Automatic annotation (TrEMBL):
One of its GO terms (cellular component) is membrane. One of its GO terms (molecular function) is glycoprotein-N-acetylgalactosamine 3-beta-galactosyltransferase activity. It comes from Karstenula rhodostoma CBS 690.94. InterPro entries: C1GALT1/C1GALT1_chp1, Fringe-like_glycosylTrfase. Pathway: Protein modification; protein glycosylation. It comes from the Eukaryota. Keywords: Glycosyltransferase, Membrane, Nucleotide-binding, Signal-anchor, Transferase, Transmembrane, Transmembrane helix. Belongs to the glycosyltransferase 31 family. Beta3-Gal-T subfamily. This is N-acetylgalactosaminide beta-1,3-galactosyltransferase. Residues 47-89 are annotated as: Disordered. Residues 56-65 have a biased composition (Polar residues). The keyword Acetylation does not apply. Gene3D superfamilies: 3.90.550.50.
Length: 530
């Protein structure tokens, strides 16, 4: 009995170390680390084994512009020698180099899917009446992987550590003084509580618009002085969304050491200007000259006499450095998925910017991007095309009719035409709500089909006319006017009117839309100007 027990103990004493040794040996060759202990108790700091992600290398290179601009080194580069702390995750958390305008931000691993953004400076123009509605969502999505960006506004404030500068603080006193455009600017500064409560009883939208035009020229001047070392300076509004892979791809063929001023053209009495909400982009060389030949005081005065800051910026670039703007439409785009007119002008092109997005829409596009990345086998989805927005946002909602709905919204007028009866004496045509009806009415002598004669009389008559006009892909009827379009888009709900005749009724030629799409076939992807 005793002998057996001794025997058994001997077997245990001999075998356990052998089993343990085999286990250690197998674990070691299995994944190259001594993985016998839970990772947080590991004897070696696990981050020694983790290679820095590519994005981190990119973020380091941005510290140069900061040093140049602020004259001091970034205060919080990650500490390479950090001792292992119990309960920290095994992978080291990388952070963007901090600067005085941005809070400390961890680098999201998903940023590794984006191209190098370290040569691009994003400049967001906003106003204190909208900052808290728009920016927090942008921080969580579109700006999340940017090593650096600047925010210019009409009041200095901090949004959870993101600092917003008042670009109007140096606007000439003689321009501000006695100038109603600056009433909001003055009220914002004297507000004792939150801005929403202070501006509740005023027409903030209109006032913010009037103030906005004083910002563009000054913000270009100031951003170059603060950050002189970037290749590209992208100026957007707080409700603009950038799809970074396409933006980087679009800029790739161009030399930042040459003068460039890219945007999306909007016609005006001063010629085509680069629309601000769509976003416009200046090269290093153009920014440098613009700043060197800066005449911000002159344009402080000029702003009083013009509607809009983006128009003024295009004029200023032309006058100061003799540089003409370049149209990158529709890749640079002033619309968004629900209001972008799909059709002959907008289908196969890659999309880099969208505009007028609510926070809900920004979040939705960002999630769509993440899903495309997750679905792509190598994490690199094909370039996002305008038609991809159709499939994601419009196709699942396409029906033949919606009541209290406006699918026309506003349009490039060459693709829209109207039917109405100018002989109808019951209507005040001089004050008819939408004068575009009258400018673009289809003349009876141009009618090719009998159905067009009655198109204005009812929604059903409008639909019947659309059915026989080959190019009509959607239509809308309201108040004895029928509108047709070669484009198709979802549009927006409208207020429900009591009077049946005044209700907005929208329809789509679903079969013709599906045929038009089938006829387009595969897209040949081409970036503008490439
Ligand atoms: C503007 O400044 C640059 C120097 O950065 C200079 O080379 C250029 O000639 C100036 N004038 C114009 C009209 O560009
Ligand atoms: C991702 O793949 C799933 C499954 O195939 C599909 O249902 C979904 O539509 C895809 N999403 C995108 C954005 O491509």
């Amino acid at each position: 009995m005793l002998l057996r027990q001794v025997h058994f103990t001997a077997i245990i004493v001999v075998c356990i170390p052998i089993i343990f040794a085999v286990f250690v040996f197998v674990s070691y060759f299995h994944d190259g680390t001594l993985n016998v202990l839970p990772s947080h108790l590991s004897l070696r700091p696990s981050h020694d084994d983790v290679k820095p992600p590519a994005q981190n290398a990119a973020s380091h290179s941005t510290s140069a512009p900061q040093v140049a601009a602020t004259g001091k080194a970034p205060s919080n580069v990650e500490n390479e020698e950090a001792p292992p702390v119990i309960n920290t995750p095994a992978t080291e958390q990388k952070v963007f180099p901090q600067n005085e305008w941005l809070p400390a931000r961890p680098i999201d691993p998903s940023c590794a899917h984006l191209p190098d953004l370290s040569k691009i400076l994003l400049i967001i123009k906003t106003g204190a009446s909208e900052t808290f509605d728009r920016l927090p969502t942008q921080f969580m999505t579109m700006t999340r992987c940017l090593p650096d960006f600047l925010i210019f506004s009409d009041m200095e404030e901090s949004i959870m550590g993101y600092r917003v500068q008042d670009v109007l603080k140096d606007t000439l006193e003689e321009v501000k003084h006695d100038n109603g455009d600056f009433n909001l600017w003055r009220r914002q500064q004297s507000c004792l509580v939150d801005q929403k409560s202070c501006q509740k009883w005023s027409n903030v939208g209109g006032e913010a618009w009037n103030l906005d035009k004083y910002k563009n020229v000054r913000q270009s001047d100031l951003s170059y002085r603060m950050r002189p070392n970037y290749d590209w300076y992208i100026h957007i509004d707080a409700d603009t969304y950038i799809h970074w892979p396409n933006m980087v791809e679009m800029l790739k063929p161009f030399d930042a050491q040459k003068d460039h001023f890219f945007g999306s053209f909007e016609p005006s009495q001063y010629g085509d200007f680069n629309h601000g909400g769509s976003g416009y982009i200046l090269s290093q060389s153009a920014m440098k000259k613009f700043q060197a030949n800066s005449s911000v005081e002159h344009f402080d005065h000029e702003a009083r006499n013009i509607c809009c800051g983006d128009m003024l910026m295009t004029i200023a670039v032309r006058e100061n450095i003799a540089l003409a703007n370049t149209n990158m439409f529709p890749t640079i785009n002033g619309r968004k998925p629900f209001t972008l007119p799909f059709g002959p002008r907008q289908w196969c092109q890659p999309i880099a910017t969208l505009h007028k997005l609510t926070s809900e829409e920004v979040a939705s596009i960002w999630e769509f991007e993440q899903e495309r990345i997750a679905n792509a086998t190598d994490g690199k989805p094909a370039p996002l095309l305008i038609k991809d927005l159709y499939y994601q946002y419009f196709a699942p909602r396409l029906v033949d009719k919606l009541e209290d709905w406006d699918n026309m919204y506003d349009d490039y007028l060459t693709n829209v035409w109207y039917y109405l009866d100018k002989d109808d004496k019951s209507k005040d045509w001089e004050h008819f709500p939408d004068q575009k009806y009258i400018w673009h009415q289809r003349k009876p002598e141009d009618f090719k089909h009998d159905e067009e004669k009655k198109a204005h009389t009812s929604f059903n008559a409008c639909k019947k006319a659309c059915d026989v006009v080959d190019e009509c892909l959607q239509f809308r009827w309201q108040d004895d006017a029928c509108a047709m379009s070669k484009n198709f888009r979802l549009g927006n709900p409208t207020e429900k009117r009591e009077n049946q005749k005044e209700r907005w009724m929208s329809g789509w030629a679903v079969k013709k839309i599906e045929k038009w799409i089938a006829d387009q076939g595969e897209c040949k992807v081409q970036f503008p100007g490439a």
